[in-house]
Design goal:
Radius of gyration: 13 Å
Strand content: 15-25%
Shape: globular
Strand order of the largest sheet: 1-2
Domain Transposase DDE: 5-57
Pfam families: DDE_Tnp_1_4
Number of helices: 2
Largest sheet: 2 strands, antiparallel
InterPro entries: Tnp_DDE_dom
Number of strands: 2
Protein name: Transposase DDE domain-containing protein
């Protein structure tokens, strides 16, 4: 799901870069939104990963 140096990154590096997000979770109009800071270094990588996840077909049980 990730590109560049994060595609082959060790778990410690992924935790540091993706779980320590400079962002705020907001709610409005019955939706949750993740507001990522424009100055955060890895915002493009995280946004690309979320877009790829959203494009996956949904499982029907």
């Amino acid at each position: 799901m990730l590109d560049g140096d994060l595609a082959a990154a060790e778990p410690k590096k992924l935790r540091y870069r993706l779980l320590h997000v400079a962002a705020r979770l907001t709610r409005g109009g019955r939706r949750l939104r993740l507001r990522i800071s424009k100055t955060w270094l890895w915002r493009n990588e995280l946004a690309t990963a979320f877009h790829r996840l959203a494009a996956l077909p949904r499982l029907v049980s």
